[in-house]
Amino acid sequence: MSENVYVVSAAMVPFGKHRSSSYVGLAVPPLIDALRSAGVSKEDIDAVWVGHSYGGMMTGQRICKEIGLGTVPTVNVDNACSSGATAVHEAWEAISRGDIDVAVVIGVEKLTQFGGGTLPLSPEDREVKQGIVMPAVYAMRAMRYLHETEATPEDLALVSVKARKHGALNPFAQFRSEVTVDEVLAARPVADPLTLLMCCPTGDGASVVVLASEQARARLGVRGMRVAASILHSGQVAEGYRDMTAPEISKHSAHDAYEAAGIGPEDLDMIELHDAFSIAELVYYETFGLAERGRGIALIRDGRTTFGGDVVVNPSGGLLAKGHPVGASGVAQIAEAFWQLTGTAGDRQIEDARWAMTHVTGGGTAGLDHGACTIHLFEAA
Amino acid sequence: MTAATATEVLVSSPVADLESDGLLGEFPEGPRLVGTTCDACGNTMIGTRIVCSDCVGTDVTRVALPTAGVLYTFTRLHVGAEGVRPLGYVDFDGDVRTLADLRETEDAPLMPGIRVALGVDGDAWWFAPEATDASIAPAATEATEASEEEK
Fold it and tell me: Do A28 and B51 touch (CB under 8 A)?
């Protein structure tokens, strides 16, 4: 693991309900745009990784053949919500080992194919058979967090309000209108204490990034951002007690990421974190070392995680506002980091952004905190 | 980086490809299978496309594919539906291949390498050995008795 790896290009379609588009129709346009914007030709590409959970057989090959991108390895990756980021991790690993120079990573998902409702989980899972759904998992985290800390439902609402404020600035966001605390609290209950506006929407989308070695980046003559850490952890089973307000898989992943990059949470200018439900953001403030246990609420109450604060959390609007087409999210977070660290984020640009973290988990498995967690750290180049 | 900029990145647009799944299209010369030709390199592909699979050009034109070609290979499928379904790959005059339902008669059985012609009736289309009663000129306004019996 010695070669420096860079993200040299990013593109995506706005997340939303693209009912007329297939996985191919979602992913081919950003694939073309990502290659063009970095001046990458098909012949430059050594391998392709494609993150998705519901695309079916050979989703990656179905996309790549449209532009005649074949012969090289194409690997389809499923790690639930971490699929896209896991795909980036695999590409990073291959380049950093020196095996290849240029990799394309596609994250894509089409959730409107299910016609609504909660995310379909594996029917083989013990708790799924008992009726667990993702909103219930996060709602139980929230209920315990409200029990253990001074947090109130208003704090949960504040996370959604911030997300929607950021999303309103992002042309890629599924929700581009702001909401108030009262509107969030008055929204339809989904799983107590979570209301509809505390839950990420379902939708469709695709995002593409191109990763390159130092030499390939020099040859392409693009700036990009450096991958300072790429960490992938899997869940460890707990048959008995588990503290659901302190997810250890994300804590351990963050620890390893900070160590690999040689930085700490105080160095971060932005974080794109897995706010599938608003409770998650408060918990992750603490998990990532931005706040002491039980004190995450101070950050959201004091506006320290929005533009002008200590660290901008989810400048894109996050999963709550930008949307969460499962397999696409991890790549889309990295696209956001790319635009922020290359000064091309438009209205939502964070001034002097140098360090970015992206974080996704993948859940829905009995006995595990989450099934997978991927954390990346990036430095402006 | 030193300062925020107002530079905006390109917002990619999804393609509504699920709305254009059918291969049969209307053209001035009549119903034909739809192809796409790349304006830059001339590569012709089956179906509606937005990008050239050869040169990755995105300036492409919808074209009518030829009405005849060569049957490369075929099978008679005995599973998945009622009865027997002949199915094969047809290579058009030009370098485009399509999967196609096939029709045959005792007088004109299917064989690899024979010339086949497009038949169309409403939304249905198929290929059959050329110059037999099982094939119909696609621009024809009425189907022959033979082809009606085949259906």
Answer: yes
